[in-house]
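Bumping my old thread because nobody answered last time. Still need a sequence for this structure:
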């Protein structure tokens, strides 16, 4: 991933790295619509393949409102990630406030042993240029 700030979480031998990108061309601040893209890379540092089955997100906007999103796979896939390999995808989020954050979990499976386990998605911030920062 390039020089954009990264947010990382490691669970066992699984590492999740997230980068966010403000989408000015899709945002409409006058209409309270703020849009970001985010790139996720899921790295398998283990010695067996794993499969991503489901996702659970917790999205919090700048007013503290919480939205929970759950679903099968990511971007229409339930990827199988081989040992010492990674899977990367892009997605997006829209908020009614110029700032917020999100994080969650991926619900995984080790096909060889049928073991189910969860890995953390790091909490990452969604900050727009329309958000004024207050220094304490």
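Sorry it took so long. Here it is:
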């Amino acid at each position: 991933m390039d020089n954009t700030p990264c947010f990382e979480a490691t669970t066992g031998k699984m590492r999740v790295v997230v980068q966010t990108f403000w989408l000015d061309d899709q945002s409409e601040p006058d209409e309270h619509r703020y849009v970001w893209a985010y790139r996720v890379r899921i790295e398998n540092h283990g010695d067996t393949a794993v499969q991503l089955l489901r996702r659970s997100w917790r999205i919090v906007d700048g007013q503290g409102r919480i939205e929970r999103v759950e679903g099968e796979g990511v971007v229409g896939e339930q990827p199988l990630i081989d040992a010492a390999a990674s899977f990367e995808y892009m997605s997006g989020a829209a908020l009614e406030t110029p700032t917020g954050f999100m994080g969650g979990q991926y619900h995984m499976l080790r096909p060889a042993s049928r073991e189910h386990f969860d890995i953390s998605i790091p909490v990452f911030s969604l900050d727009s240029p329309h958000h004024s920062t207050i220094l304490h």
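The chain has no helices and nine strands. Let me know if any region looks off to you.
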